[in-house]
Specification:
The chain is α+β, with helices and mostly antiparallel strands. Helix content is about 30%, strand content about 20%. The chain contains 20 helices and 22 strands. The longest helix is centred in the middle third of the chain and has 20 residues.
């Protein structure tokens, strides 16, 4: 955006609080002249705030503002040109449009306005979301043609209203017919709309949540839909299993679904919406400046105080590192749990050739990571400083991993090189690792091969540990010792043990059977030869199941078997954890990036055991989290553990 002063009334009056734009042109106007007037926010006239994406600045279009030539991007220009055709707005309407109402050439002003962005959208009598023209060449091929998208959203609303009831299963069944092409629903148009960039721009999330719900409308061309109806339509897509590639596909469905989920949280539990949890949940959102990943969420985060005032002179390294330093201080969360997010958000995940600028213990929020309800174990719902965005009806639970017991962090941070020195214990060393087809973000990759253990305890031909005990531990590992995917319910020690055996028995009877879910089949094929206590996993399984009857097909369609399958999917695909065996024979689930020789440690004040990789004399890099069976509730730091407390210097 640019402006040219030519001796007339100043384009940018000295800033009191905000500026508002009035565009007094009528229908069919060929020239676009606007008036920009300063107001104190508290006493400003009623105004409409615009939420949109800028688009490329390579091609701009001219306006005249206060008599000055002023250039805006084509996406904004298309909306301004559209306004005279919208009868709900008059030439007297006041507008707040960031690209025009903020002097984009004044860094100090931009930062001061960013700091009150939330108040601006909160004060607006209405917020208009501009998603672009129905057939808009400014967008990519997959989202260019959205003709009739709004009409189809209304159709989804109407169908859901007819199907509404208290029985979710019945509602879903009633909506299923919309999956059929004969229903006439244009899923392609809806998909295109949800793939437009507004849904995945991080600044628009704050604008969406803070704006008055009743006064928010979404425009595509001249057609519009209210926020209430839009969210109803998005729920209808879920009832129709809209993530199916034949309908919306995963990317488009989640773009709308994640916004709806955040809307529910803001309405019902906004005082629980922590900054770190939001950073992880919007990890696949787009942003122009990397610092804005944090700054854009401050208006809706319960703990925005973790970040100081916006400093245009601060680098990405300073902003990201400062957040971690503040989080772990005793006067804030007094916890190291935030470093566990480096498991997902790290330099490797960025797939970038840029030099690494952040220490391994600082999450690199620039990494493009698909938003997950529970991204890491440290995001368990019982954690005040982290948490997750599970359905709002899943209440807070006292169930928690407490690997470090009630200890608090003992740490120092060297400001000269950002080395974190902290206290903890080494439980053991990774010896063997199961194979995996997924990276830590759950993305399919070229298979990571199984690494056989080499320690005597894992190679011994005769083991005193019975196969039944081994498989009981593995069944807990595959569910991370939690009954539900939100990590909020404990599970009985043998809850999924029988289910695991039934899957194994069905697999041994006929590996290609449709009874055996593909995820289990793939996981077992990849891990069957892993040596555990001197025997291959498959040998342990065959011994225990040799006298079992093959389960009936119905067991795989209902009840606990479905739950176990879901937990397996959560752990080995969504969270991409690899079966791991340590030198002493302990079993767990490690990060995809784990290697033989990584240390399994418990750091004081950290709820989850972590993997530390030696990189020099008494120095380490943080690799990620590690579930280690038998060490998730403070066992490693108890006085009788026999483990010696030491310091770790983490680079």
């Amino acid at each position: 955006m640019s402006a040219f002063h030519n001796g007339r009334k100043p384009l940018f009056e000295p800033l009191d609080t905000i500026r508002l734009l009035q565009m007094p042109w009528g229908k069919g106007a060929s020239t676009f002249d606007g008036d920009l007037v300063p107001f104190a926010l508290q006493t400003s006239p009623d105004f409409v705030a615009l939420s949109y994406t800028w688009g490329t600045e390579m091609h701009t279009q001219p306006l005249s503002i206060n008599g000055h030539d002023f250039y805006v991007t084509e996406n904004l220009y298309s909306f301004l040109r559209r306004i005279p055709d919208l009868p709900e707005f008059s030439p007297d309407t006041w507008w707040w449009v960031d690209a025009i109402c903020i002097n984009q050439n004044d860094v100090k002003e931009k930062n001061s306005q960013m700091a009150i962005m939330g108040k601006i959208y909160e004060s607006a009598t209405q917020t208009v979301v501009w998603l672009g023209e129905e057939n808009d060449a400014h967008f990519g091929e997959e989202s260019r043609d959205c003709r009739y998208a709004i009409e189809n959203l209304y159709r989804l609303c109407d169908e859901m209203e007819r199907a509404s009831g208290n029985d979710k299963a019945a509602n879903r069944a009633a909506m299923e017919w919309l999956r059929d092409p004969k229903s006439g629903l244009d899923w392609g148009a809806v998909r295109g709309l949800l793939l437009r960039p507004w849904w995945r721009r991080v600044w628009t999330l704050q604008e969406f949540l803070i704006s008055d719900r009743s006064g928010m409308r979404f425009y595509c061309g001249r057609n519009s839909i209210s926020r209430h109806d839009l969210e109803s339509a998005i729920y209808a897509t879920w009832l129709c299993k809209g993530w199916d590639p034949q309908l919306l596909g995963k990317e488009a469905h989640e773009a709308g679904w994640n916004r709806r989920r955040m809307s529910q949280w803001y309405n019902e539990r906004k005082y629980e919406m922590g900054l770190v949890a939001m950073l992880a949940y919007v990890g696949d959102s787009g942003v122009t400046n990397a610092e804005d990943r944090i700054y854009s969420l401050l208006g809706i985060a319960k703990d925005a105080h973790l970040v100081g005032s916006l400093d245009p002179g601060s680098s990405v390294e300073q902003v990201y590192t400062s957040l971690v330093k503040t989080f772990i201080q005793p006067e804030h969360y007094d916890s190291l749990d935030i470093i566990c997010y480096s498991h997902l958000f790290n330099h490797d995940a960025r797939n970038s050739e840029d030099e690494r600028i952040l220490p391994s213990w600082v999450p690199d929020w620039r990494a493009h990571v698909e938003g997950k309800v529970v991204p890491v174990m440290a995001s368990q719902g019982s954690s005040e400083g982290t948490g997750n965005f599970r359905p709002t009806w899943v209440r807070n639970s006292k169930v928690a991993y407490r690997a470090s017991g009630s200890t608090k962090p003992i740490f120092t941070i060297d400001p000269s090189n950002n080395t974190l020195t902290c206290a903890g214990v080494v439980i053991d060393t990774i010896d063997g690792l199961g194979g995996s087809k997924y990276d830590d973000a759950g993305e399919a990759i070229e298979s990571l091969p199984l690494q056989q253990p080499t320690s005597d305890s894992n190679l011994a031909s005769a083991s005193s540990i019975p196969s039944k005990s081994v498989l009981e531990v593995i069944s807990r590992c595959l569910a991370l010792d939690r009954k539900d995917r939100y990590l909020s319910e404990t599970m009985a020690p043998d809850l999924f043990y029988d289910d695991f055996l039934k899957f194994c028995k069905a697999y041994f009877r006929r590996p290609a059977s449709s009874k055996v879910p593909v995820y289990f089949r793939d996981w077992f094929n990849t891990n069957r030869s892993l040596l555990i206590n001197g025997r291959a996993l498959e040998d342990h399984c065959r011994e225990v199941t040799k006298d079992m009857a093959v389960p009936e097909a119905k067991f795989f369609r209902e009840g606990s078997l479905r739950k176990f399958y879901g937990r397996l999917n959560d752990t080995v695909i969504t969270m991409a954890r690899r079966l791991a065996v340590t030198e002493k024979g302990y079993l767990g689930m490690a990060a995809s990036r784990a290697r033989r020789g990584d240390l399994v440690c418990v750091l004081l004040g950290c709820s989850i055991p972590v993997l530390l990789r030696p990189v020099g004399e008494d120095t380490f890099e943080l690799v990620g989290e590690c579930y280690l069976d038998g060490f998730m509730d403070g066992e490693a730091v108890h006085g009788d553990s026999g483990l010696v407390r030491r310091e770790f210097r983490i680079l």
